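INTERNAL TRANSFER SHEET
From: sequence group
To: structure group
Subject: DUF1109 domain-containing protein

Please process the attached sequence and return the structure record in the designated field. Keep the field labels unchanged so the import script can parse them.
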Amino acid sequence: MKTEDLVGLLSTGITPVRSGSATRRFCASLPIAAIGATLLMATVFGIRPDLGAVVKTAIFWEKLAFPVCLAIGALIATARLARPGARVGAGWPVMTIPLVVVWLAAILIVVTAAPQDRLPAILGHSWRTCPFNILLLAAPGFIAIFWAVKGLAPTRLRLAGAISGLLASSIATVAYCFHCPEMSPAFWSIWYVAGMLLPAALGTVLGPRLLRW
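Return from structure group:
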């Protein structure tokens, strides 16, 4: 077969990719993640009864800012990894900085607390269930975001799966903040992070299978 014939055969039936595909897919999947997590939170766990008073405190907005910043970083990374051969790029520092800030705050709280108050600050009242609650709330976003990423032809499937899972779980954690009574960074630094890492680990395992195109 001549080179010209081979090129002609390979190019047969190819149609141009519509511009803005990534934007459309994420604009569809992210609201599903946010609305799905919020509805699940309100239905399964319920909104904390003192929310009206809590939203007037700085610590609530600090708690909310933690998963919001992680979600922004994970979105940047996911949008890049959804493209063939792309790297995480600016997503890494945006994801890392809020983790470092919360861990430093947690260390300061534990070090300065009285010895009898240190373990309660870390465990809170819901450490046994918190990570699994976040995992549950991440389910709608996990499905929707994997759908979005798969259609954009990722090539680093395990990493793309992990960051997609982190994006879903960080959005779920934002919703969970409106139920969770825990107000200590020492708690968030362990149990919120554990809850967000569960879908990320699941995405690492399932990425090569679910994101293959």
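Handover comment: The chain has a mean pLDDT of 91. Residues 185-210 form the longest helix (26 residues).
Transfer complete.
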